[in-house]
Amino acid sequence: MKKSIQAIRGMNDIIPTLTTIWQHIEGVLRQVLETYGYQEIRLPLLEKTDLFSRSIGEVTDIVEKEMFTFMDRNGDSLTLRPEGTAGCVRAGIENGLFYNQIQRLWYIGPMFRHERPQQGRYRQFHQIGAEAYGLAGPDIDAEMILMTARFWQKLGLNDLELQINSLGSADARVAYREQLVNYFSEQMNRLDADSQRRLHTNPLRILDSKNPEMQGLIEAAPQLLEHLDEESQEHFVALKQLLDQTNITYRVNPRLVRGLDYYNRTVFEWVTQQLGAQGTVCAGGRYDTLVEQLGGKRPTPAMGFAMGIERLVLLLSQNELPIPNNAPHAYLIMMGNEAVQQGFRLAESLRDTLPQLRLLTHCGGGSLKNQFKRADKSGAKIAIVLGENEIASRQVTLKYLRDNQAQTLIAQSELANYLKSLEFGNEVIGN
Ligand code: ATP
Ligand code: MG
Q1: Are 81 and 111 in contact (CB under 8 A)?
Q2: Rg of the chain in Å (alpha carbons)
Q3: CA of 125 to the centre of ligand 1 (A)
Q4: What are the tens digits of pLDDT across the range 219-263?
C-alpha cells in the first residue's frame, strides 16, 4: 500500500463540520464592515520579498525568521504574504487609489508565517483586516476600534479587553530609543539572547518579548508614553475622548508595541485570557509613513488592523456560542424510477418558489429504510416522501424527523405553500 501524503505542518484543512463556524464569522464581519462603508480589496498571495523587508522591517520576527521565501524559476525572490498591509499599500500605490482620495478597505485571506505550530498559531492562518487611507485624525482610529467592538458584540464575545497605546512620531521614537538602549545596556546580563541581539538593531522589540523572565525588566523600563511629541499627545487624548464618548472600555498599556516596524501613534490590541500566549485576537494601529516609504508620491496617513480568524473560531467554539444551523430543511425521498422523474420536477419547482429552502434530494436509489437513514443523518427537519401511492394521487407524505408530529399527506401543488408556513427554528423560508 502506498503511504498517503499529508498536509504541510501548520497548514490545516477546514473541513465541512468547521466551515459552518468560519462562514458565520466571515458573514458577520463582512456585514459589519459593509455597514461602516468599507470596500473589499483582493490581493495576491505572493509578492516580491523586498515589499515585506522594506515595510515590516528587517529586524522583526516576521522578516528575520518567519517568512516563506523562495526563488522562482526566473531567480526572483518571492514571499508568501505574512500579513496584508504591505500588499494593500503596494496595490493602492500601483492602482492610484490614494491620489486625492479617502479609502476604507478590507480584505480576507490566508497569511503564511513559519512559526512553531500550536493552538492559535499556525503556518497558514487567516486574517480579516481593514485599512483606511487619507485620514490623519484620531476619528478614524476611533471608528476602527468601534467597528471591531461591534464585531465582538455581533459574535457574542464578551471577554475581550481593549488595550491602546501611542508610539508617538518617528522623531519621538528616536529619542526614546536612546533611553531604552541606555536602560537595557546597564542590565546587559539580565537580557536574553534575542534581546541582546536586538539592543542595537531594534531595542523597541525587546518590549514585545514574550519571555516571562524578561517581564520584570520590561515593566521597569522607561515608557514611551512619557516621551510623546506634543501632536501625538493631543492625538492620543482626542482618541481617548472619542472612546469615552462611545462607552468603550479600554486600558492604556504603555508597553504595547506591535511586532511590525511601520506603526506610529495609535496602536491597539484586543486580548482574551482564554487562549494563553495566543491571546491577541485583533491588532492594529496607524502607519502614516508607510505609503511614502514604499514609493507613494504624497504623504498618505493610514490606519488599519487585522484579526486572526482561527483564534475567533477557537473562542466561539470554546464558549459554545450559537451559530446558525445550515442543515437542510427538507430531504426528498423517492421510491422508484417514476418517483425520481416526478421528484426532480417537484424539487426544481420548490427551488423556484422558495429560494431560501435548503432541500436535499436523495441520489443513488436504495430502499426506503436506507433513504430515511440518510435523511435523518442529513439533519433535515422533514422528509418529503414520493412513493407509488403518492405519485398516483399527486401528493407527498411529510414525515417529521425531529419532533413527535404525525405524518401528513399533502397535495404536491400545495407543498410550497405548506413549507412556507412552517417555522424552521426561527428561520422563515420564502418571501
Ligand atoms: P502574536 O503576538 O500572537 O505572534 P502578531 O503580533 O505576530 O501576533 P499580527 O502580525 O499583528 O500578529 O497579526 C494580527 C493577528 O493575526 C494576531 O493578533 C493574531 O490574531 C493573528 N495571527 C498572527 N500570527 C498568527 C499565526 N501564526 N497563527 C494564527 N493567527 C495568527
Ligand atoms: Mg507573531
Answers
A1: yes
A2: 28
A3: 9
A4: 899 998 888 999 999 999 999 999 999 999 999 999 898 767 788
